[in-house]
Task: structure prediction
Amino acid sequence: MIKIQRKIQQTVSKKIVCKEWRSSIILEGMVEDWSDVVKAGKIAANKGYKGVVNKIEVKNLHIPEINKPIIADNSLDKTQTDVLTIGGGVIGCAIARELAKWDVSILLVDKEDDLAMHTSSRNDGIIHPGLAANPKTKKAYYNVKGNAMYTKVSEELGVVFRRSGSYVLFEKRWMKLVAPLIMKRANQNGIKGATVIGMKRLQEEEPYLNTSIKGAIFFPSTATVSPYKMTIAYAENAIANGIVLSLNTIVTEMKKERGKIISVKTNRGTIYPKVVINASGVYADKIANMADDQFFTIHPRKGEIALMDKKKGYLLNSIVGKFNLGHSKCITKGGGLVKTIEGNILTGPNAYEQPYREDFTTNRDSFELMVNKLIDTVPKLSPGDIITYMAGIRAATYEEDFIVEKSEYVSNLVHAAGIQSPGLASAPAIAEEIERLALESLSETKDIKRKEKWNARRKKDKQLSIMSLPERKRIININSDYGEIVCRCEEVSKGEIIDAINSPIAVKTVDAVKRRTRAGMGRCQGGFCMPLVIKIIEENTDLEMTEITKKGKDSAVLKEETKT
Amino acid sequence: MYDVVILGAGPAGLAAGIEAHKKGANTLIIERENRLGGILKQCIHDGFGLIRFKERLTGPEYANRYIKMAKKEGLETLTSTFVSHIKKGKGVFYLEAVNSECGITSIEAKTVILANGCRERTAKQVHIHGSRPSGIYTAGLAQYFVNVFGYLPCKKCVILGSGDIGLIMARRLTLEGAEVKGVYEVKSTVSGLTRNVAQCLDDYNIPLHLSHTITKVIGDERVEAVEICEVDQNMNPIKGTEKKVECDGVILSVGLIPENEVAESLDVCLDPATKGPLVDQNFMSLIEGVYSCGNALHVNDLVDYVSESGEYTGNSAAEYSKRSIKKERKLVRVKKSNDILYVVPQYIDINSTSKKIVLYFRVKEKREKVVICFKLNRETIFTKKYKYLNPLEMERIEIELELYDLTENDKFEFAIE
Result:
């Protein structure tokens, strides 16, 4: 500890002090800049302590409070539940779905108005092969395992999924020399089918790539999926199997007795769970702290991504990333170009640290730098093809590995924390492990049996634009709403929008409809269809026109009726 | 099989349909919205039809004149119908149209006229960063909310871009009780018509800020403010000039893009300057039997010219569809000088019997006291003097080629002297 403190004081700031707490290390002090906080945290990480609890503050830096729901009621008050899962991202929803096999009561809460509102709707949708992480890390283990599980789980949940494969590209001849190293890593991590390929084969597979590229390694297991559709599908299947979902629900306090969580306070009443699962993304350390079990720290790392017009989708068939040696000795792809499951080309992401956990703003300078760096891989793409962009925040710990374990100090708390990339790819495998841990914890209090009627399958959403003509005809014949095209760019019908509104997780916002149907995700970005979508929401819910929001809370689309 | 199928029932499509029908062609108009009239339905301000009807009509009034004519002629139309696929066969086009009544209908046509109009450039296409709250709308969308729905999308807004719809919306929102804090234009000149600056901004004391842009949107749920920046000559924001303007809405009027995705699916070549198809004097694209008119061909300032191009196109398509033996086209490119932004048509078919050629053009930069001339093999055959030429105003000229025996080796040039 003394050594760590000395190093931090020498390289970052003399005002930082280290303390031991349980098996972790706490950093305290005051610095001038956020980058110093991160630097100190990184120095302390992986030096023999379980985790870094970074409490260093920045002078004059105001970090806003967590965004809270407006609602305050008693709808959940005195709820007894076997399992309380906190966080409705892909991890929380996958856990809920797996646990729903068992005859236990499950409550899933999320503070937002819909599921997948943070990182799970703000990423590139890649199911990574498992190359980026060091062997022996949890990341590598869950990634490779989760990747393999996707074929089955996406089929069961009726989510479109495609193993397009990915290429690590060699721009320079010398890079080919590193190929054996990458192959060795792939082998160590248990990735199957990786092959070194030459220019000719690469050009056959991806004819529009820059001809200066000298070769690549192909990873056949890499796949793409819509991350938010996957999350929603997990949750819908869980609900069909009896779990309870409560959105707009924020956990504010926990009460413990004899090393056990007794009650959890929310804005909608106090919940009495037997087991608590922490799947709360960028706030996982804050939730852990409520149970006095914060042995790690989330330092938010932003990533920006850009989406290109579908009409340029033909320029890429799979996923390509440039080879680079990366920062921390690990082999990282450092962003790339992705043919998304919907047919757009996605560019990104980049990565930079910021103190804010919910600041999803994009920044012109970093964004343009990223686009310019990546886009020359496909010379026919230009920044003018970009139709939209966004940012997501990785819930990174200083150890830069997943935390998938039972708490050492709170007997009924299970953590699924620090789940950054490749979290989406790892979700099925993480969920399986958390399922096991939660059951282990629950079995101390009761006998657990499998549900008699558990249904693994979820009915596929109707997506008319990709149906065969006879099928589409048949569906429109049954319900004429499917023949009324609302979103012209993505060819989404009124029927599909009504389906989303009436889906197991009833939605009423423009963005929630958008994530489920793609209405508004095309090149006009909702310029034509937004009024029609609002009208359909008004007709199919109890909302007035001025009550319909883009994404809940104070985001009403319309302000007031005009004078006449 | 139809002789002529038209996609879009805005002013271009309606005019084309009526004309084709009058010429005896078996004609069908397909419209994706539930009413005829296109964007005119929401343009309740006046000033439409000064050239065609010598009257100041509102958008809906102008549209209704054509809708009435179409009804009188018994023109066949399909509304709420979306063309999902189009394929070219030998002398015939196969369309798949989706609607709620018939499900999916297969339609065959000898010729297709693309009159799809245009869409608006979005916030992301002009590099606005920051957050993504509610309250950011294109001017056309805001216009729809106010004029069709009867709802105000914001109470206190800024407008980015000084295009005509933006200026008109500045006035409209003000009249409906919203406060327009200012119009910001990245260029050093206004994009809209001079009369609109006077009537929509000056009359209501709405400030106009040239060489300014929005660099950042602030606010998580609703727009709370925008960051405004001055820009340099290359339209890049100047660091240090950032200013925060509080508002609850951002209205964008930053340009229109012709909608040519259907054209592209038919491999129609587009002109990078107009973003519409390359056409000959009959408005036929480089793909035999595919026509383009109105704002899908190039962005017009006045609806009167949109209707005119529709009429010509309807006429040409009807005539072409009736011809049993198709004369091969011989297309000669109209060369333009560098100071001309674009000229439509870009080609002249020397085999065509239509020798009276209507040219629409825009210059790249403002010019005063100039003569434009049209040359055939370096010999000037047409000139016109202009007191001034402005890129914001599309110009129209007519050239008579009847007297000349044209061959493939002829050279057409269009230039400013």
Notes: The mean pLDDT of chain B is 96. Chain B touches chain A through 49 residues (CB under 8 Å). Chain B is about 20% helix and 35% strand.
